[in-house]
Amino acid sequence: MSTITAKSESTDFDDWYFDRPFRHEIIENWAPPELVRAAEAEWPDDHWPFWHRYDNGKLTTKDPLRIPPACSELIRRMLCLPIAELLGIENAFGDWNCHASGLHGMPPGSSLGRHLDSDHHPNTGWKRACNAVFYLNSHWEQEWGGHFELYDATGTHCEKRITPKFNQLVLFQPSDVSYHAVSEVTGPETRKTLTVFFWTQSQGLMMSQFALANALKQPSKSEQTRFVILCQPRTGSSLLNTSLRQHPDIFMHREIFNHIQGHKLPQKGGQRLRKALTHPKAKAVGFNLHAFQPDRKYADWRDWEPAWDALAADATIKIIHLRRLDVLAQFASWKIAQVTGMWGPQQKLAQRPQVYIDPEALRWFHEWNRSLFEWRLSYLQGHSILSITYESLCDSWEETINECQRFLGVYAMTKLVSEEAELQREIERLGPWTTRFQLNGKAIGGSYEVSENELLLRQFRERLPYADRILELGCMEGGRTFSLARRVGHVVGVDVRREHLQRARFIQQQRNVHNVTFLEMDLEACDLESLGTFDAIHNVGLLYHMANPERMLRQLAAIAPEMLLWTYVVDDSDAEQGSYSGRFVTENPADQIGGIRSRSFRPTRSELIRMLSDCGWRDVELLTEEATAVALWCRKSAKTSSRRIPPRTMSVAVVIPCHNYAHYLEDCLKSVVHQSRRPEEILVVDDASTDDTEDVVKHWSDWGVQYLRVDHENVRLTRQAGMEATKSDVLCFVDADDLLTPDYLRSGMMQFDQHDIGVVYSDMIRFGTEDVVTGFPESVTSEEICQKNIIHCASLVRREALEMSQAFAVPVNPKVGHEDWALWRTVLAQGWKAKKQPALYSYRRHPQEISLTKSWDENPYYRLRCLDLETITLFVALSGRSAVWPRFREFLESQTWPREQTKLFLLDTSQNPEYSQLVKSWLSDCDYPHFKYEQLSVGAPGLADEERCGRVEIQDAVRLAAARIYNHLARQMTTNFVWVVEDDVIPPDNAAESLLRGFDQNTGSVAGPYRSRFHDGYVAWSEGHQILKERGESVKTIEGNGFGCVMLRSSVLKNSLFTCRQPPYDFDPAFYERLKKTGLQAKLNWDAECEHLDAALLKK
């Protein structure tokens, strides 16, 4: 139950009175709490694009269709309040269109100064009767402010303060002494209220009905037919009016009585109507009369009795009764008209908005139509009445119009009648034309025709579906002006050439367009601020004709928050205008579509973006791009912008990790914001900085730069956080101390021309302590990126590629390894391709820099390449040596390379079932999570231990078997490195790490030495095939080695073909001869020296 309070909780004085300082009422717990909580939960945030923002910070929405469902239900209940019972105000009714009411938000820091409310509705003339305010905040603290303050009759002393309590309704009666205010909101929340206004009929409205009655009582000329079209909104009245007025003997007024404006008449309105119902030449004269106002839900029919009495009294007045059979369509069309402001034909809308159909309102609407139809027929008995429908008017227009013409006593004709010869002479006099127009069904003018579906017009409508006032620059003959005027309140078209404007005004007159104003102005010299403010600017095809484009752009930023800009640009520069680079272009002032000065200035793409930013256009969105032109949507602030990415256009986000680099961040952000292709998202991820990084980002917030704080102290995790906090298709991770060259993003995004391009990289210019360009290969394969780091960290990468490859899941420690190198290897290993772009990336070199973050050891490649995280293949060809299997098995069990980073591949060539069973039995219990076992016949059983000395056929068979084994291995590699161990060689337990530590970017293999059973030395040789006989130290470059224990790059193995009957005949010398041709080296790491098992043991 709702209860009326007896006192206020928040007051500055002791006694409380019902009517002090003016009439008001407080109702607590007015609505169901669950409904109020739902309304609070769905309240839009402060960046909602449909807020109207006042200078004092207040937020309002006037569009009922944008109000969320729970809030809408509460407003509906408020509109049904019994105002007569609560405040004693008779005949008060709610405004269901929610003019200036609806959702009202007061963000922190906002306030509403002491004021009086206007006492009349600006559109209908209604008199304000009552304001209702309902509070939604469920946890509002008194010290948060936002109190509703009621002042005395002088407006000097606040007599009462009402705290905005949850589920509290406040009603008060506005008057000329009801001063009130809202104190400043000092808490952390937005003060959320629903507001509804109640009205009563004003005296001025009643006078209009009596004026209408008097006019209808005037006698008509005997030869004239007076008639009235009785209609309702959205029944085709405009179509019928326009169609009848084409007849030369019918004089049709446009709507003398506008149902939207409340049928108000000016002074001497009766005289106007008496003159309106007579005409010196016409045989029939009439006008439309809307019989009710749908936005007054329960209007009193008796308001119209004087008019209806006068109409009923004169049976000579003919009635055309126009109605619509499909009431649902009529109701929906009326709702759409309320939202769009289009009370004319709605098929001109590019896209109809969604509307909510209130079942109760629709039921009332249907009942009203039915009752009104019956009441009209009974009231107008004795009159000649012709009933027609909207449906017949649309489906059988010619037949219906002919029927109306016959009813009015004029001959039937439906063809448009005009002074065609005179019209054609005027068209020719105004020529030559540039733009083609459709006039009375015929094409006139020049060759250039603006389509309603023109891309630029569509983009303008999509980004600004609702607007009251638009400025169009360079309107010429109005080709786009009239298209814009169909969807906005008013268009101001500006052009410098008078002949253009004469043609534009001629078309305006012929089309009877009233919401366009054409002005002649020299945009190079005029003061645009004198035109006032606008919702947006349509600036297409003009800027490139200007000698000083910066001056105009700066003025435009002072009069509108948004602008569509289409202009030509240049790709290189040879001149400067102000501080901007570009080219001067010669203009021909005699050309009616050219500039009026002898030359103009066109900036480069990136300089245009910088110019816009300097002039106040801080958020620049690329709409379309051509070879020499760009279309941009420009905003003064990116804080509340909601970008719409064109279909099939990829979006890009720039993520900037920053740790204590605030002193570099300003320059980095400037290079990103001034890109010739502005990114859709710019995010600075502050990783545990202790400097003023956040303050620097705040300075750039109007340019759309976002801020995210993390405490990882790990650039890999910081970049991952940036990826997760953005949504764009492509990401670019730019270090805070680096810079992007002006065309970097635009040039890079153009390279994503194939579905499998995952990474776009570039050459790199080093600046700071040096000034050199580092060139990278024209193409990079997965094998090449595995070998060396040739893709820099700020390369562009598809989000899809990052997510698919799970690149950030690789646990690289960025303090010791190149995390970006690991990322690119992971992405390319998935099959994505890398492509090079022409623009450069600017990489800062710091004084005495090796690395600002990484620690170093004696071999940095192992750490930087993150080889400690590498997954390798451990390959063993098992020849069937049962005697040594236990010893070899011990090695497999004790070697220390992590099991989860080892893929064990055992190739059983023994052809011995008992031996094979031993191996498989061990595999079933081993701790290798990834293993592969295959059987392959490569030669006779026991071939590996056959005596080879002097036996050519055995030597050939052994070589053939080895070639078969390693060719089989080369075609099955899935890791970047393979560790080959023969089953009679026992490496040390840490051999895998020792071998990997021997690599650098120029190394193809690193072997562990072991002594030969056939000669006095190691199975390794130096230049000239000199056998190594003495033990060495650390890592040495050699010419080749045996395959007893060797770590190989898989790319080398994959590209090798092992042969056995071409010199050199042994497979291992042949392999290393071919390795030298690749430019890669072979090395021997003495820390990985192995045991070569005794021949006697092998024969057991």
TrEMBL record:
Its cofactor is L-ascorbate. Keywords: Dioxygenase, Oxidoreductase. The keyword Nucleotidyltransferase does not apply. Residues 21-199 form the Prolyl 4-hydroxylase alpha subunit domain. It comes from the Eukaryota. The keyword Oxidoreductase applies. InterPro entries: Glyco_trans_2-like (IPR001173), Glycosyltransf_2 (IPR050834), Methyltranfer_dom (IPR025714), Nucleotide-diphossugar_trans (IPR029044), P-loop_NTPase (IPR027417), Pro_4_hyd_alph (IPR006620), Pro_4_hyd_alph_FE2OG_OXY (IPR044862), SAM-dependent_MTases_sf (IPR029063). This is Prolyl 4-hydroxylase alpha subunit domain-containing protein.
